[in-house]
Amino acid sequence: MAEPEHCTVCGRELRTPESRARGIGPVCEAKTRPAPVTLPGLSGRGGQPVQDGPDLLDVDAEDGDR
Q1: Confidence band (pLDDT; 50, 70, 90) for 4?
Q2: Please, what's the b/e burial string for 30-66 (b: 16 or more CB within 10 A of its CB; e: otherwise)?
Q3: 57 in Cβ contact with 63 (< 8 Å)
Q4: How far apart are CA 1 and CA 55, in angstroms?
Q5: Which of 30, 4, 32, 31 is nearest to 16 (CA)?
Q6: pTM to 2 decimal places
Q7: How many CB atoms are closer than 10 A to CB 14?
Q8: Measured in Å, how far apart are the chain's first and last C-alpha atoms?
């Protein structure tokens, strides 16, 4: 199957091989790309937690309770 020569969203000519492979130009791709997902507890600063919380994996050494 041949790669499209025009954007499948707006119909403009696709100029780069990457755009043709995706079938969408960079402007339309940026407009239709979903917002980045932010995971709770991650600050984006080297993977350090934003706030402290209980560590669910800690085991009480005396009785083995979690």
Answers
A1: confident
A2: eeeeeeeeeeeeeeeeeeeeeeeeeeeeeeeeeeeee
A3: no
A4: 53
A5: 4
A6: 0.48
A7: 20
A8: 57
Helices (H), 1-66: 17-22, 26-32
Tell me the percentage of the chain whose pLDDT exceeds 90: 41
Higher-confidence residue: 52 or 28? 28
Residues 6+ apart with CB under 8 A from 32: 9, 24
Q: Which amino acid is at 55?
A: D
**By the 8 A CB rule, do 47 and 58 touch?**
no
Q: Residue 21: pLDDT above 90?
A: yes
CA distance 30 to 22: 13
